[in-house]
Amino acid sequence: MKKKILEVNDLHIHFKTYAGIVQAVRGVNFELYEGETLAIVGESGSGKSVTSNALMKLIPEPPGIYAKGEIKFNGRDLIPLSEKEMLSIRGNEVAMIFQDPMTALNPTMRIGKQIMEVLLKHKKVASKGAAKTRSIELLNQVGIPFPEKRFASYPHELSGGMRQRVVIAIALAADPKLLIADEPTTALDVTIQAQILELMKDIQKSSNTSIIFITHDLGVVANVADRVAVMYAGQIVEYGTVEDIFYNPKHPYTWGLLGSMPDLNNSTDELLRAIPGSPPNLINPPTGCAFAPRNELALAIDYEEEPPMFQVSDTHFAKTWLLHPNAPKIPLPEAVARRIESAKGGTANA
Amino acid sequence: MTLENKYNDQIAPERFEIVGARPSDADSLNKKQISFWQEVMYRFSHNKLAIIGLIILAFITIMGIFAPMFSSWTYEENTGLYNTAPSAAHWFGTDDLARDLFVRVWIGARISLFIGLAAAVIDLIIGVLWGSISGLLGGRVDNIMMRIADVLTAIPYLLVVIILLVVMEKGLIPMIIALSFTGWVNMARIVRAEVLSIKSREFVLASRTLGAGTWHLIKRHLIPNAMGAILVTMTLTIPAAIFTESFLSYIGLGVQQPLASWGTMASEGNKAIQSAPWRLMFPALFISLTIFAFNAVGDGLRDALDPKLRK
Amino acid sequence: MLNYIFKRLIYIFIALFFIISATFFLMKLAPGSPFASERELLPAIEQQLNAKYGLDNPWYIQYKDYLFSSLSLDFGESMKYKGRSVNDMISEGFPVSLVLGLEAMLLAIGFGILLGVISALYHNRFPDYLSTVIAVIGISVPSFILAALLQLYLSLKAGWFPVTGWKGFSYTVLPAFAIALTHVGFIAKLTRSSMLEQNNSEYVKLARAKGIGKWTIVFKHSLRNALLPVITYLGPLTAGVLTGSFIIEQIFAIPGIGRHFVQSITNRDYTTIMGVTVFYSILLLLAVLIVDILYHFIDPRIKLKGAKK
Predict the structure, then answer these.
(1) Structural domain span for residue A145
(2) How many Å apart are CA B250 and CA B252, to the nearest integer?
(3) Per-residue pLDDT reduced to its tens digit, B21-70
(4) CB contact, 8 Å: A156 with chain C?
(5) I need a labelling partner for B3 at 20 to 30 A (CA). Which of A350, B98, C15, C38 fits?
(6) Is residue A81 part of a domain?
(7) A175, A198, A231: which is the final residue of a domain?
(8) Could you name the CATH architecture of B47-70+93-309?
(9) Any bridge partners for residue B105, and if so which?
(10) How far is C220 from chain B (nearest CA, A)?
């Protein structure tokens, strides 16, 4: 039985702004087990970044407020913890990889020192000399050539891909149980992206780290995730294993996301379908289903009442009225069905 | 895990009819469409310091224009009362030549503000011309023009002003010339920077491919974009000019008697600081308030125009 | 690096050439003879004086003479105080002004950065407002007015400090403070906005994600990056302190170069004016060069010859 590393229950996060209170996260629930990767997918404004920052209590308060809920890391709720207590957890048991390697590193500090800082702060080494040795090892582990020389480099002397590897090295330095990767490949070229993803998968295999992977790119999700949570307007609208989500999606928003992925296998005269419209204002969240105004298949009840989470299987849940027994049976949209077919046919091993 | 599979199955079937999307709700125009300048005005008006500065400037300008008109004395008239402290008859007291200080302060306002504005305007004209020509033409011309500008600013500003005034003899016009002699370089640099950044932007290229000439580009693109930076620079030049003018008065290079700027009044008042402190206090107070006000407004404008803060 | 310094020195030389020439010609254009302020001079004596100062030579000879003597740093004799060489006046006054200037600069940098950092860390709370008020006062109230007020209230009335003169440390406090306060204001503002900008940067977020404490982040990460713009202010700071000294030295009767300079302006003592101007220019040009070199050492991204990466 795998150990449960993280359990998030009914998390609500609000922000106080001049215009009002923004409800950025509105009741999020998920779990994460040892050694597995959970991908959180959504567009900008869905609340995925806020959620990931909240896991380490990195949300500035004010203006942020942990309005409700629990974040249980190894059984211990993090929300009531003081900043001082969090300092010993951050970088140590939970670590984060940031999106933009260009700005994530301190431009006036040598990269070796930036790695050593983690080791020394969390007392993972006996001396500065040991810290240096370990840092060079880490640089090697993440695939940076000539690590002894690179130890003394400044960030601007490295390319984007190299910098991201350094960021990963910093995150790994203290052997964290949980790694939160906030769009780590979005700012990189596609080829570098592939390398970084491989690196992360290797790391997970060798140290059994759990990873939460934030992204808006379904292609990446298919590549790395064991389980997926689809977020929209501050809520998780569909949740399941990667097979559940890709081969048996139940929420219209997930259909929209899958349908909007460019598909190389299909005929070229198929139009690229985007989901029209934009996410709702979270200062006054709608009372019904937040996705309804953009949903061609919205039901009357979608505009009146928010759907509960319906269970599709042991592992699969979706928050849509379409799963209610009284709802009409709607077939998968054609674009989605075709992609599923070609995916199933095309990939012998996912 | 608190995901429960609970739901109410007593829901009327009509509620499950497909009604579809509502595009008008979906394209939430949360962001009201407002123009660039409207947004600038909005941000500026919410900057407390800037509004205070604006009020102070309005007050001083109005008083400068109207107070002398309604005063019982002219600024050089002998009222018979020498060195009296502020009183009901003379709100700011009198000086050693028995002149009413209240009216003198507001005449001083006219002069100091005039000097500041004149210097700023000359800076504007020369600076904008120099900067835009240099930026637009580029290449060697740009190089030479900027080198000249560099050499001109190699000498500290105050030294240049002092030497020019020593050569030219004191006076209002010489003062303005001296202040703007190298002052325009700052404006030129800023304008040139704007020109260079706009020159390389895609919309200029697009405009050109549509057949737009250089003058058209200047009018429709350069000026609106550079306007913000120009306005901020001008607003911040004025308090520097007022400061420099009062500095010069203290070393005897100020405006001629009996015409008195705040600077000359302050330097005279300084000599009598123990016996008649009000003679220094009032002009000093207004110099400081005016410098503060212009700086506050200038900073407010700069923050309001900052593109990084655009929501 | 040495290459860079060498190139800069050449530029300094060229700039100085322009400055010396400009000063010379401007003084020539100035109305009146320097002896006009004296009592009526007998024409014969005036002629003798003119000959002595070489004023009867054609202008190009005077120019050549001046250039050469300037190059050898000989600024001639004061026209007002016969027998006193300008060089002597400068070398007497310089140590005094130097002490005053350095004190003012240290005050300005120290307090300025301190106020700016406090402001940023207690953003929008009381310490921020207090620091901002101090900064605003510093920027708005001209140094000489502040000096007069300080002299009036703290020296004459309260007796905490001596009124004028230069006979010990307590004599330096008020003048240095008067010069420094304006710059405290500018530096505080600059530091504050720079620190705030750093606080919102990604690398600070990453440092927090590492579990590094707030104050450690400030001193080990943000501060160094935040101070970069402040270093660029050091050039204008030097110029400001230098020019600030003119009136302050007068008000506090401090025997520095500034006071001599102001007096030479009043007296239309052209040789002194020219000499001091050239001297000041050399100082400032060197100061700017030093600041640029300093900046290079502190920001590893800047290559001195060219653009940032």
Answers:
(1) 102-175
(2) 5
(3) 777 665 555 455 566 777 778 778 878 888 999 999 999 999 989 888 88
(4) yes
(5) A350
(6) no
(7) A175
(8) Orthogonal Bundle (1.10)
(9) none
(10) 27
